């Protein structure tokens, strides 16, 4: 409801109790987060106080984006606090993401800046790529790629070798065996330290 000018208005004494009965607009804060969530008009009997977690002073009309309006911890005033709820923050040691669910500044060890790779390290202000870790990751990726190609070549060579040993290999299979062996030798000559700029040999098609 809205208090009209004709209705009696409550007056609060210094002890927070009504010295005159009447209506009073009060402003409510969440019991856990202290966040402002609305107001109501309450009728106060003589000698009674306002509802718990409610306050007689009107809060600020608006807050800036990224802020929330809350009651101060001591309950004395309204204040703006940082509101990152729903945002993703990243742990500066592990790079692991987590969704912010509480009001206030970010906890120590968290940042809203996302890392760009598994090789990023937090330097105190921003993410920076660790050159040694980055190069090691490229080397490992190249090694896995080479090993996968080698395995494919070995498997195909084994099949074609069986055909040759059994004297049932076609001319196409005989050529394919040579091509796959050549391909395997080419793989053995790859310098993995050139990753990621490695010119991989083209595998045979048969």
Task: Give the SSE order as H and E letters.
Answer: EEEEEEEEEEEEHH
Number of E-state strands: 12
Total of helices: 2
Radius of gyration (CA) equals 36 Å
Name the structural class.
Answer: alpha+beta
- Main beta sheet strand tally, sense and closure: 3 strands, antiparallel
> What share of residues is helical?
25-40%
Mean pLDDT: 93
Q: For the largest sheet, list the strands in their spatial order.
A: 4-3-5
Q: Could you tell me how far the N terminus lies from the C terminus, measured between alpha carbons in angstroms?
A: 83 Å
Strand content: 15-25%
Oligomer: single chain
> Which stretches are poorly predicted, pLDDT < 50 over at least 5 residues?
none
Shape: rod-shaped
The tally of domains stands at: 3
Topology record:
Elements: E1 11-12, E2 18-20, E3 22-29, E4 36-44, E5 54-55, E6 67-71, E7 78-82, E8 88-91, E9 97-99, E10 110-111, E11 120-122, E12 127-129, H1 131-165, H2 171-188
Antiparallel strand pairs: 1-2, 3-4, 3-5, 6-7, 8-9, 8-10, 11-12
Top keywords for this entry?
12 strands, 3 domains, 26% helix, alpha+beta, Phage tail protein, TFA_Chaperone, three-stranded antiparallel sheet, 206 residues, Phage_T4_Gp38_tail_assem
Please give a quick description of this structure.
The chain is of the alpha+beta class and 206 residues long. It has helices at residues 131-165, 171-188; strands at residues 11-12, 18-20, 22-29, 36-44, 54-55, 67-71, 78-82, 88-91, 97-99, 110-111, 120-122, 127-129.
What does this structure look like?
The protein has 2 helices and 12 strands, in the order E-E-E-E-E-E-E-E-E-E-E-E-H-H. The mean pLDDT is 93. Strand 11 and strand 12 (127-129) form a beta hairpin. The chain has 206 residues and is of the alpha+beta class. The chain starts with 10 loop residues before the first strand and ends in an 18-residue tail after the last helix. The longest helix has 35 residues, at 131-165. The chain has a 3-stranded antiparallel sheet with strand order 4-3-5, with no helix packed on it. The protein has helices spanning 131-165, 171-188, and strands at 11-12, 18-20, 22-29, 36-44, 54-55, 67-71, 78-82, 88-91, 97-99, 110-111, 120-122, 127-129. The chain has 3 domains: 11-60, no CATH class; 88-129, no CATH class; 131-194. It is rod-shaped. Helix 1 (131-165) runs antiparallel to helix 2 (171-188). Helices cover 26% and strands 24% of the residues.
């Amino acid at each position: 409801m809205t208090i009209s000018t004709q209705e009696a208005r409550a007056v609060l004494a210094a002890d927070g109790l009504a010295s005159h009965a009447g209506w009073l607009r009060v402003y409510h804060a969440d019991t856990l987060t202290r966040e402002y969530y609305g107001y109501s008009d309450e009728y106060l009997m003589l000698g009674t106080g306002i509802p718990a977690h409610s306050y007689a002073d009107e809060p600020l009309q608006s807050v800036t984006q990224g802020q929330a309006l809350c009651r101060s911890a001591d309950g004395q005033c309204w204040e703006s606090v940082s509101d990152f709820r729903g945002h993703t923050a990243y742990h500066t040691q592990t790079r692991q993401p987590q969704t912010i669910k509480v009001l206030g500044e970010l906890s120590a060890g968290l940042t809203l800046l996302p890392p760009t790779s598994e090789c990023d390290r937090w330097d105190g202000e921003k993410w920076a790529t660790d050159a040694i870790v980055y190069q090691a990751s490229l080397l490992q990726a190249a090694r896995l790629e080479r090993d996968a190609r080698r395995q494919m070549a070995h498997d195909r060579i084994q099949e074609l070798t069986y055909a040759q040993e059994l004297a049932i290999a076609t001319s196409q299979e005989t050529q394919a065996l040579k091509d796959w062996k050549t391909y395997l030798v080419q793989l053995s000559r790859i310098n993995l330290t050139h990753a990621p700029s490695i010119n991989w040999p083209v595998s045979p098609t048969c």
